[in-house]
C-alpha cells in the first residue's frame, strides 16, 4: 500500500499491488497547511500516523489500520504554524522552533529555537540520537536528542533555502535538496561538503523506488 496526502485535506491509502491503482481508505485531516504527515512502523503490519489538523499548530496521532485516535499534541500558544515533522517525535513550527514530544504522556519533552526563519525540513538519525534541520537560510543546523538538545554543528551553504533533507541509512552521508535546483551531499559526522549535483533546471518530476527493484518516474505537474 502507498499513502498519499493531497491539498483536498485528505490522506488516501492506495493499493498498488499487481498494477492496481485504487484508493482503499482515506482520512480527513482538515489541514490546509504545508506540513506532510509522518509514518512510524510500530511492528510488522502496524503503524502510527502523525498528521496536522485544522488547528495549524497541532499534531494528531492515529493508528494507521483503524484510524483510531491515539492522542492530540497541543503546544502552548507561543508556537505558530506546523511546518514539518518526523515520527520519533520531533515537530517544528513556523517560528523556527523544534519541539520534541513524549507521545505516551502527551506532553512536550523539549523545545529548541534552532532557526530564526521557519523550519522547512528535518531528518533524524535514530542510532546517533541526532537530527538535522533546514530553512530558508544558508545554514543547516545539527542537534542532539538528549535532555539538553544542544546544537552541535553549523554548516554554511552558498545558496539559501533547503526544501528536503535525507540521511542515508548507514548514517554516513546527508543529501539536501536546495531551492537553487541543486542537490548537495555532506558527510553526516561533521557536515563536511562532499559534492554538488547540478542537474535539474525546471523539470518537475517525481521518482519513486520500491523493493521490486524498480524506479518509476512520474510527471505530476501540467505543462501550463
Keywords:
single chain; 224 residues; mainly beta; four-stranded antiparallel beta sheet; 0% helix; globular
SSE order and pairing:
Layout: E1 2-5, E2 10-15, E3 22-28, E4 38-43, E5 46-52, E6 59-63, E7 69-73, E8 82-86, E9 90-93, E10 97-102, E11 107-113, E12 119-125, E13 130-135, E14 139-144, E15 151-156, E16 162-167, E17 173-178, E18 183-187, E19 193-197, E20 205-209, E21 215-219
Antiparallel strand pairs: 1-2, 2-3, 4-5, 5-6, 6-7, 8-9, 9-10, 10-11, 12-13, 13-14, 14-15, 16-17, 17-18, 18-19, 20-21
Structure, explained:
This protein is an all-beta fold and 224 residues long. The protein has a domain at 122-224. 0% of the residues lie in helices and 53% in strands. The protein is built from no helices and 21 strands. The protein has strands at 2-5, 10-15, 22-28, 38-43, 46-52, 59-63, 69-73, 82-86, 90-93, 97-102, 107-113, 119-125, 130-135, 139-144, 151-156, 162-167, 173-178, 183-187, 193-197, 205-209, 215-219. A four-stranded antiparallel β-sheet has the order 4-5-6-7, with no helix packed on it. Strands 8-9-10-11 form a four-stranded antiparallel β-sheet, with no helix packed on it. A four-stranded antiparallel β-sheet has the order 12-13-14-15, with no helix packed on it. A hairpin with a 5-residue loop joins strand 20 and strand 21 (215-219). The radius of gyration is 18 Å and the shape is globular. 28% of the residues are buried. This is Guanine nucleotide binding protein (G protein), beta polypeptide 1-like. WD repeats lie at residues 202-224. Keywords: Repeat, WD repeat. InterPro entries: WD40/YVTN_repeat-like_dom_sf (IPR015943), WD40_repeat_dom_sf (IPR036322), WD40_rpt (IPR001680).
